[in-house]
Amino acid sequence: MVERADDPWGAIRDAVVAVSDGFVRWVGPEVDAPARLLTSATRTLDLRGGWVTPGLVDAHTHLVFGGNRADEWERRLQGATYEEIARAGGGILSTVRATRAADRESLLASAEDRLTTLVDHGCTTVEIKSGYGLDLATELRMLSVARDAGARAGVTVSTTLLGAHALPPEYRDDRASYLDLVCREMIPEAARLGLADAVDAFCEGIAFTPAECARVLETAAAHGLAARLHADQLSDGGGAALAARLGARSADHLEHTSLAGVEAMAEANTAAVLLPGAYHFLGETQRPPVGAFRSAGVPMVVATDLNPGSSPLGSPLLALNFACVLFGLTPAEAVAGMTRAAAPVLGLEDRGRVVPGARADLACWAVRTPAELCYWMGVNPVTAVVAGGEVVRGAADG
Ligand code: DI6
Ligand code: FE
Known about the structure:
The chain has a single domain (56-346), classed as Metal-dependent hydrolases (TIM Barrel, Alpha-Beta Barrel). The longest helix is centred in the middle third of the chain and has 18 residues, at 136-153. The protein is built from 14 helices and 14 strands. The protein is globular and about 70 Å long. Strand 5 (123-129), helix 5 (136-153) and strand 6 form a beta-alpha-beta unit. By secondary structure, it is α/β, with parallel strands linked by helices. It has an eight-stranded parallel β-sheet with strand order 4-5-6-7-8-9-10-11. A four-stranded antiparallel β-sheet has the order 3-12-13-14, with no helix packed on it. Bound molecules: 3-[(4S)-2,5-dioxoimidazolidin-4-yl]propanoic acid and fe (iii) ion.
């Protein structure tokens, strides 16, 4: 699909997409396809009238973790809140205990399973955060497990160091020393080893203050790493404006973002990553200011937030449905939010569109209109997935 003013999908009917050496070489109506595209060595996939979109880009996940939190979820169903559980040492910290205790092989096996589920649903690029180690060795292990899971699944994984996710128990009375650990050891080591592409922080009453997050993200910049920020998820802590001021690529969640925050993001070209899975799973009622993002021209991205506490969501398509039904995005905005608007948040300008020169990351679907990607719930119409020119799902030749 290409952007065109008269068609939000940029659809080309009866089209051919020609790929070689991992890149899209030609896209257009079959009748216009140059004869040179087809040689005796050409392999063809006949999609029988289905649709091709860019491979989906899930720009916000925490899919490397030990254990799960079904027990905590049952307690929340009985009335306990996410914040109460976190303040009592559960929540993120219970996943930290399980992740620290997990050996590398089991961490990798479970992460690979989750990544595989996303690929089954059309993802070819997935961002994965650390943040359940909260010590140097476990944070680095999570990042290297994320990279290995991507290599095994044959898709692109972009990694984000989230050392400032929660205060670990051993630093309960010494926040400053934990921030020193993040800024003086975790960020420099992750950068030196090439294990992180970006750095994120959780700016929230139950996590880190704006000043603490600013220190973390400024340190990231000093080490050449891009910045992201979990902002205004449970309360308006001024996180959106902070992300904008620090030149973050995105501010994420944003349910409680003020209009001033939206304006600051528009000015700074900071994208809004919307995570309707967490909104749904936590039973939130305050929606992010989607109308304001739209009118201010802030790019809207949709992601799964796949994690064990607030969004155990393995279907990017269900995230698209939630974005439309719960947040009021149009289907075209939602699909753009997982393709062309999502790739720049990861600094990956070579994908997210099906155009000549783009990386050949494609998802093929048995749907009659692309709005159906947002319409079905718990149905997976994927027929094939191509990552870097390789067919990674649905290899049936036509
Ligand atoms: N916000 C979230 O929704 C996830 N992290 C964050 O900062 C939740 C992580 C968890 O509960 O395990
Ligand atoms: Fe998150």
